[in-house]
Specification:
This protein has about 120 residues and is an all-alpha fold. The protein has five helices and no strands. α3 crosses α4 and α4 packs across α5. The longest helix is centred in the first third of the chain and has 23 residues.
Length: about 120
């Protein structure tokens, strides 16, 4: 193999690797997961979708889920520091488990938190 062909092959491989890396990390607007009326079925949203959205969309979803779960528990307060830490744990978990639904991930994390107490 000539040096030119080697460099060309290496450059192509590097470009393909960069493209794959970029597409794996590309962020998607949350609106992409909405139905024709603009609604997102939060019970069907996957960890992959949450982990691949923009931070402000993840923040909004985390606030929504927090309100939903606190409403179910009849709690009427929010602990901002805990909520942010919980969102971080959720996103880390979702990146490691992209096939799970977000509500499954939240249930697992809440159960883990309970067993630690």
């Amino acid at each position: 193999m000539t040096i030119t062909r080697f460099l060309t092959s290496t450059a192509c491989a590097a470009a393909m690797t960069a493209a794959v890396s970029f597409s794996a990390n590309a962020q998607t607007e949350l609106s992409a997961y909405a139905d024709k009326d603009g609604f997102i079925n939060v019970q069907e949203l996957t960890c992959a979708q949450l982990a691949n959205t923009y931070q402000e969309d993840a923040d909004m979803l985390a606030a929504w889920y927090s309100g939903w779960y606190n409403g179910l528990a009849k709690k009427h307060y929010a602990h901002i520091t805990r909520a942010k830490a919980g969102e971080h744990k959720l996103i880390v978990y979702c990146k490691a488990n992209p096939g799970k639904k977000v509500i499954q991930a939240i249930d697992i994390l809440l159960k883990d938190e309970k067993t630690k107490k």
